[in-house]
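QA checklist item 7 of 12: single-chain prediction sanity check.
[x] sequence parsed
[x] length recorded as 293
[x] structure emitted
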Amino acid sequence: MSAPPAMVSRACSTLLGTPARTAERLSAASRTAVFRIGLRDGRSVIVKLYDHTARRNAQTEAAAIRAAGVAVPVPQVLGSGTISSEGATALITSDLGGHTLGATVRSGHIPHAQALKDLGGLLARLHRAPVEQTMPRRPFFDSVSSLARRCPPDLLNRIGPALAVIADTPERAPSVWCHGDIHFENVVLSGPRGTRYLIDFTDAAPGRREADVAHALVMTAAHTPWDRRTLLDAYAAPLDNTRLSAWVIVHTARCWVHASPGTSRRLWSDRLTDLTRQTPHLFRTLRSEGIPR
């Protein structure tokens, strides 16, 4: 534990009316940072700071948490708002502890298959949360633009059929509340019964259910038919299998793009190769070219 950063102190004083006493940084990205904060009144809370340049902010995440909270266990939103003249925002939520589903899988206390069932069930419940018609949907371009900016042209061309399937999704297809970053580390076990709570709604927005389920399959290494079926059986809601497979390819390609050269890049390259064999109709065959490594 260390002294709280100035922006964290400002967030606690402004949004809670209580000074921060200690701080533990949990994560940091280019435009966000998350801290576990000990308040002077004895409470422990989670403070998430958003830079003023962030595309999404504390208010959009707070709205997503409240919307999801009618369907799945989520942290309590204690405060959110602007904390600087430049437009930086902060979100303060209850502290559920750090016992994640991922940690329990790594320790062997919960089998990987059971964790997949837990995640599939949570996703099914989340996707039943009401979506207001006025909420902006996540457009196709927004979903793949970051991939297009960083993806090598040969790989982008190779997954073109998968991108076409996603782009051709009918506008009338119903939207659901998508978490946007679903994996074992974003599920916290809390309370005497180890209730599963969904956390980190930074990227949550109304979207296509197949995109969210595919993200879960990719990020939980559910790439074998058995693991895939385990999660989907727990999800137990109708899905368009072609769109689901297309989204699996896109999410896997995104992971390849962002992976560090070496072992990590080779892992995602191997998974793309496996997907080429499993769903060849969603790849463009290029003679003399393979999956980039």
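[x] summary fact logged: DSSP finds eleven helices and nine strands in the chain.
[ ] second reviewer sign-off
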